[in-house]
# Entry
Amino acid sequence: MTTNILELTSIDKHFGDGDSRVDALQGINLTVGIGELVALIGPSGSGKSTLLSIAGALLTPTNGQVLLDGANITQRSSAERTQLRLAKYGFIFQGSNLISYLTGREQMLFIAHLIGLPGAEAERRADRLLHDLGMTDRAGHYPEELSGGQRQRIAIARSLMNDPRIILADEPTASLDSVRGRQVVEMLAKEVHEREKGGILVTHDERLIDLCDRVVRITDGLLHEDETVGAARAVAV
Amino acid sequence: MFLALREIRHAKLRFALITGVIVMVSSLVFILSGLANGLSAGNTAAIDAMPIDGMVISNGSDYLLDRSSVGADKARGIASIAGIETAEPLGVSSASIRKQGETKLLGVSFFGVVPGGVLEPRIQKGNRLGAQAHGVVIDESLVDDGIRLGDTFTTEPDGVELTVVGITTGQTYRLAPVVFMPLDLWQQIQPIRQGTTQDDVTAIVVRGSSQAIATIPETVPNTMVGSINQIANHIPGESEQNATLLLIQVFLVVIAAGIIAAFFYIITLQKMPELGVMKAIGTGTGYLARTLITQVLALAVVGVLIGISIADTLALIIGNAVPYSITTQRMALFGGVLLLVAVSGTALSLARIARVDPLDAINKAG
# Structure
């Protein structure tokens, strides 16, 4: 019995060989508990994208172990990882996040289609999520007709469509002003807490970390727990 | 497919344009095919239609009926060979005719056949050969030139009067309508060339087993045998013209493949970031590949169907002015080739899709 959704243990990631070898991550340990939103903060080139990619089953580590819901997913094949991402992960990216030729509601139904959810159930789930994120009136619009904040709300709704275990958000507020950015992260935090998902939020914006349960900082491939916010940790271990 | 049609629906203009290109190329392919077929039929239809297994022609004629001359009396000897069912003389010549009271000359092919024999044409209107001494049966395409049942015309320059007693259809040779006449009449009006006699004809047509036909040159001196295909393909210009038109069609299909490949490749390149996101959220490469192929097939099927209807409409408009004929089989063949070519044109794009890395969805700068 584990209370952690995601456990990264002793993760190393190297790129290249010999003189050109880059140690992107060194000995990283990171856990994400149930209903916990972890902020991952680091400057450019710190390795936070690499860490997010390994946590998100997009990349395999050189050394170390990745457990998702207690299952070791470290050395899964590319096709298996694709399946895993579809089944267990919700993703929110910063830029061209949505599929340009699908309406908001279709973005959701596409996920349902991929996971084989029956039509009526898919529509019910999509409409509920759109309602929860306040996007019901904009559900029939294409991404180009939506504002940046609306697009990210659709993206949050989409990331929940497959009822994932964990949501990974890669700088979801980068293209938003601070007010809208904060609204988006508030919604993300609320969904993670209420639905008991795990969450990792990669961000530059220090003003958002009070919405997160825990903050980890990464510099030159090394991870540090941020004690100042550690007190806000929501999950009792 | 969830994505395929939604994407087409969203970018209507873009996909309509590429469908337009497919329409133009496919209609051109079908029209050319019809014209090639029509030309070929105009050249060889009367030969192709003969219910025979081969022709006995003079040795050294190289399958050219113009160069062949065989004694009509040899038909009897050939008919007595075991395995030969029928042997009948056939006279073929090019001629000019003029309708009485008019000055315009018309080019025709004279076929002298045995009345009641295997080569007698199927009558569409009027009477059979032999009903009247100088009665002839004409191909209906001469009717377009103003010659009708019962009309009389003269051969030029000899001025022999011939009367139309019957009309047949689909009988053209060397792009000229065929005028069928009794063999003895053909022999009478035929100018005697050097080394030939009044009794000579162009060929002896035979029906029978192929082994028996092959032995004919052994028993009948100075002859060779040719199949219908050999004779038809040696009509001057026939094989060259077919090769030229086939080459044009092949080029068109290749160009279509290139255009379709380039179009979908560019669209795929434009979608790379989006494809990265799709793979990151769990869409398999196979799914994306099937989506692309579905789109290409949908556009190609629509394009080819419109192309066929345009070709058909054009064929109606040009009517008999230009020889045009296309069979359903040929349309299906070219349509199938175009679809195949369209799908194979996606290979480049599919290779791109396979190489899309879901990692691209992650912000690299971080």
Observations:
- The first strand of chain B starts at residue 54 and ends at 58.
